[in-house]
Amino acid sequence: MVKQTELFKSGQDGYHTFRIPSLLVTNKGTVLAFCEARKNGGGDAGDIDVVLRRSFDNGKTWEPFEIIADDGTNTIGNPCPVQDRETGTIWLVLCRNAEDGHEKDILAGKAAREVLVIKSDDDGATWSDLRDITADVKLPGWTWYAAGPCHAVQLKSGRLLVPCNHAVLNPETGGSGPYTAHVIYSDDHGASWSIGGIVGEYTNECAAAELPDGSVYINMRSYRGENKRAYAWSRDGGLTWSDIVLDDALTEPVCQGSVLEDGLGGILFSNPASKAREKLTVQISTDGCRTWSVQQVLHDGPAAYSDLALADSGNTVLCLYECGEARPYEQIKLARFPKNLM
């Protein structure tokens, strides 16, 4: 049985719209639900903060939300969390631009886009100041940049791996090249960050998962014109990637999605499983992402971005997702259901 809880609603606490959910269950079992809180409108630029709600009972009840990243009237967003198993530190990768830094201006090199991290050493109760890592993870000539948006992963090697995307300025035309997925990583518990492998053009918002054999699967929003998810594989911890393949089984409306290893070698996938932003669905693959089965539809109506996590010692699937009755961005809900439903 699927149980639903509304966590964020448009108009709540002086914010026009809540968007871009991400989800993390900590080593101690605390559930962290992050999203962007957009102050004055629903657009991607403007006065945007990052907010957090915490649950201590596997997502059944929730603390009030708190602002954890605020840069005045500027935009802070694209929350992408990961916890280091060894240190317990939670890292949250974010992006920043000026309040008037619209995406088209960033793509054209007329506005800046920066990459930041904050961290928590107390299960999300308090957070550090913003730390700028742009120079380490963004190449000269890259204009647009975004992390996730969804959770990041820690590989068995200890590497922290964050799915990201970028675009490159074309100096001859003054325009931008295609969106391109890539990853960044840290091998020293978040002390330093580096650019990993660049996956391929005409992809952007992406999510990654490590399979039991150590290979890394990356699943991407695709701009290749076929309403199918794109994916690729890495055998070296994200430093290089295979050619991109379009998955005939995973329909998308050109939108974000999330993937998660289920603790038993299976991979869960969530997205609006339609050519429109509707029908938020969770699917599972038990054969290394070759085929997908068992669709759990969480919301038949308008829906968009989502993220996945496991709670209750891996027995409960959590999906944090955008949805509404007339449009996909009216609220952010958390769905909870037993993993054995998949």
Main beta-sheet annotation: 7 strands, antiparallel
Which H/E pattern describes the elements? EEEEEEEHEEHEEEEEEEEEEEEEEE
Instruction: Give the helix level as a range of percent.
Output: under 10%
Q: For the terminal residues, how far apart are their CA atoms?
A: 11 Å
Proportion of β residues? over 45%
The value of Rg in angstroms is: 18 Å
Count all strands and give the number. 24
User: What is the top-level CATH class?
Assistant: Mainly Beta
Form type? globular
Structural class by secondary-structure content? mainly beta
Rounded average pLDDT: 97
Number of domains: 1
CATH architecture: 6 Propeller
Instruction: Please report the number of helical segments.
Output: 2
Can you list the strand order of the major beta sheet? 1-24-23-22-21-20-19
Extract low-pLDDT stretches. none
Q: What fold name goes in the CATH topology slot?
A: Neuraminidase
Explain this structure to me?
This protein has 342 residues and is mainly β. A hairpin with a 6-residue loop joins strand 6 and strand 7. The strands form five sheets. It has a seven-stranded antiparallel β-sheet with strand order 1-24-23-22-21-20-19, with no helix packed on it. Strands 10, 11, 12, 13 and 14 form a five-stranded antiparallel β-sheet that branches. 3% of the residues lie in helices and 51% in strands. The protein is globular and about 55 Å long. The chain contains two helices and 24 strands. The longest helix has 5 residues. The chain has one domain: Neuraminidase, CATH 2.120.10. It starts with a strand and ends with a strand.
